[in-house]
Structure formats: C-alpha cells, structure tokens
Amino acid sequence: MITLEWTNEGVRMVDQRLLPVEELYPVFATYEDVAEAIRVMVVRGAPAIGVAAAMGIALGVRDSRATDLGALEQDFDTICQVIGATRPTAVNLFWAIERMKNRFAELRRAGVSAGEIREALVAEAQAMHTEDIEINRQMGRNGADLIPDGATVLTHCNAGALATAGYGTALGVIRAAVEQGKKIEVFADETRPFLQGARLTAWELMKDNIPVTLITDNMAGHFMKKGRITCAIVGADRIAGNGDTANKIGTYMVASLAARHNLPFYVAAPISTLDLSLASGEQIPIEDRTPDEVTHIGGKRIAPEGVRVANPAFDVTPNELVTAIITERGVARPNYTQSLRALVTKAQTS
Ligand code: MRU
Fold first, then answer.
1. How far is CA 248 from the centre of its chain?
2. What are the b/e assignments for 70-84, b being 16+ CB within 10 Å?
3. Which pairing describes strands 324-327 and 265-268: parallel, antiparallel, or unpaired?
4. Angle formed at CA 321 by CA 317 and CA 322, multiple of 5 degrees
5. Residue 237 catalytic?
6. What DSSP line would sit under 275-308, residue for residue?
7. Ligand 1 pocket, 16 CB below 6 A?
8. 111: CA distance to ligand 1 center in Å?
9. Mean pLDDT in residue range 140-148
10. Is 164 in the pocket of ligand 1 (CB under 6 A)?
11. CA dist., res. 142 & res. 271, Å (int)
12. Of all residues in the chain, what percent are helix, strand and coil, respectively (each to 5)?
C-alpha cells in the first residue's frame, strides 16, 4: 500500500477520494498540483499532509527556473506560501514547511550552490518520508501494551497507513498489538461526511486481515453500552500544550461516550503533531469545508437544495477526556502540560 512517494516525474500519490472503488496512483508534477491535491484531499491525514507538503516544496524548488540564489529564495518563499494555504488545522503541514525552511536557511549559510540546494531539499523530503514510517513503528511499539489481548478497539476517521507515509498512528498501535500476537478486533466509525472510516480504514484493515466491523457514527454509544468496545484510539491533527486534541469531526463525541462508559480513550500522534505554542485547544484553527460534502454522498444529493449547512472538518476533545497520548517518544499521561513538554524536550536532546 503506497500512500505517497517521490519520483523524478513528481509526487506519486494514491487518490484517496476514489478508494476503495478505484485504486489509482496519479503523479503530481508541479508544486501547484501537489498543493491542490492536499486541498481537495487526494492525500489527507496529518502526517501524510506533512510529507506531501515537503515533497511539493522540493519539487517546486527543483523545477524553479531561478538561476541565482536570490531568485531561488524568492521562489522558495512563494512555494511555501502556496503549500501553506491549503489546509489550516493539521499542524504537521506547518511543521513540514518550517523544517524545509530551516534546511534552506542552513544551506544558504553554508554557501552552497543553487544546484546543491535543489538536491538537498529533495533529500530532506525523502528523509521525512522514511522517518515518518519509523516514527509510526516506534509509536506502535509504545502503544501496543495499552491494548489487551482480545480487545475490540473503536477508531474514528482514518489514522492508518493512508494518513501517514506508512503503518499509521492509531492503526499503527493496533498493527503493533496484532504483531505481538494479540487477537484484536476493530470497530470503524464510517466518519461522515468524508467517510474516511468506511472508505479507507475498512479498506486498509481488510487488506491486512485485521477483523473490522464498520458502523455508522451514531452507533458507537450503542456498542459501548452493550459492552462490545474495550477502548477507543484515534489520531490527531493538532494537540495543544494542555493536551486538548483536534481530530476529525465526531472525535469529541467518541471521547465523551468513552468517558460515560468508563472506557480508555487514547490519542496516537507523532511529536510533530504537538503545538506547544498554543496553551489550549480553543486556539486551534478549525477548517470549514464545502457544504457539498454534507449535502451529497458519492456525488448524489441527499438534502434539499438551498438548505443551510455547517461543515467543520475537526473538533477539539478536551484533555480531561484523553486517557493517554501515545507518541514515538513515549506515552504521556495527565497532567499533559507537564508530560507533553517533557516528551518534546526529550525529542530535542536525544
Ligand atoms: O480531513 P482528514 O482526513 O485529513 O482528517 C484526518 C484526521 O482527522 C486524522 O485522524 C488525523 O489527521 C490523524 S492521521 C494519522
């Protein structure tokens, strides 16, 4: 399963809008095309958006017609700005842009040629791809112990291989538990309106032969009440300094239901999803998407023409509903203001 990869012709990505009906891998040959692919959700999921952004920047710089360093830097700034204007919530996008900017600045200071900068930025984006898979595997190992043998795990949206460079965050933890020999079952919320659970999570778990039951979002409470669910695990798009977690719309509902039924609610996310510059989730920008996603399913209208629609793509789960945050650097528990900071410091020093 390839989510995205660098090729000499451009960035090759599976078109996630078409899954599971069609499995197509178009190549996006310009940075503008990559930006548009992020915006329309050919590629989605916070870590995958980050890697796609880095590859888009590398592509734009590689193909820039600039002949001198000053002009290349100007092009670089424009490219970063275009890529940065695609989706506002997943902080991995801005983390990736920042990392590419730091690399560019480092190369400028080193006094290398425009050609060397072009090569180095391509290498940086490729390294981010490789690192993301390693990070997910480590996150999986760190989180697997939290999932007991025989567990039925509820997940929301898609935080799997398709949302990352590979392996997944929440689904990575599930995969690691399965690799430990545990018998695990997954309940996947369909995740209206974009249906990441029905289209993507169900598809990738079935490919891996991990037992999965698809439910509509409004069934989660019923199955928790019936004692069918052991715990819930989701990914994240941005985690504030106090542990408040932005994730796919409906996550807050799952976390509230889990608390009501005394079930653990876990978040799995890389350190790059932490935004310690924000004191609380109140400050996380929430993306509003087109009403068409709500009024239509599979291109077919299901609501009256002209109806007023709200379509926030994410919600924020307050930290008190989060049992633990699983990262590649370890598992954070409340008080998150302290535990997340400790993990980030660890990340910087090791
Ligand atoms: O709108 P999307 O599909 O990009 O939203 C994805 C999610 O909310 C995921 O749960 C999150 O990005 C974590 S992915 C490892």
1. 10
2. eebbebbeebbebbb
3. parallel
4. 85
5. yes
6. ETT-SSGGGS---B--THHHHEETTEE-S-TT--
7. no
8. 39
9. 98
10. yes
11. 13
12. 45, 15, 35
Structure tokens at 153: 């795990």
Nearest atom, ligand 1, residue 46 CA: 12
Structure tokens belonging to residue 205: 């778990």
Residue 350 has pLDDT above 60, yes or no: no
End-to-end CA distance of the chain: 31
Mean per-residue pLDDT over the chain, rounded: 97
Which DSSP category does 281 fall into?
G
Structure tokens at 347: 């990340």
Name the residue of 17, 173, 196, 233 to mutate for ligand 1: max ligand atoms within 8 A of Cβ. Answer: 196
Per-residue pLDDT tens over the stretch 282-316? 999 999 999 999 999 999 999 999 999 999 999 99
pLDDT tens-place string over residues 25-43? 999 999 999 999 999 999 9
Q: Nearest Cα to 248, choosing from 183, 293, 182?
A: 293
Integer angstrom CA distances of residue 127 from 135, 144, 261, 279: 12, 26, 42, 31
CA angle at residue 101 from 97 to 103, to 5 degrees? 120
Using CA atoms, how far apart are residues 133 and 127, in angstroms rounded to an integer? 10
238 lines ligand 1 (CB under 6 A): no
What are the structure tokens assigned to 336, written together?
A: 């998150």
Question: How sure is the predictor about 346, in pLDDT bands with cuts at 50, 70 and 90?
Answer: confident
Q: What is the 3-state secondary structure (H, E, C) of 148-161?
A: CCCCEEEECCCCCH
| pLDDT tens-digit readout, 189-240 | 999 999 999 999 999 999 999 999 999 999 999 999 999 999 999 999 999 9
What pLDDT band is residue 347 in, cutting at 50, 70 and 90?
A: low
Nearest alpha carbon to residue 266 among 95, 91, 142:
142
Q: Could you read off the pLDDT of 99-111 as tens digits, one per residue?
A: 999 999 999 999 9
Determine contact, residues 312/251, Cβ cutoff 8 Å: no
Chain CA centroid to CA 331, Å: 18
Domains of the chain: 4-137 (1.20.120.420), 142-349 (3.40.50.10470)
Residue nearest to atom 8 of ligand 1 (CA): 248
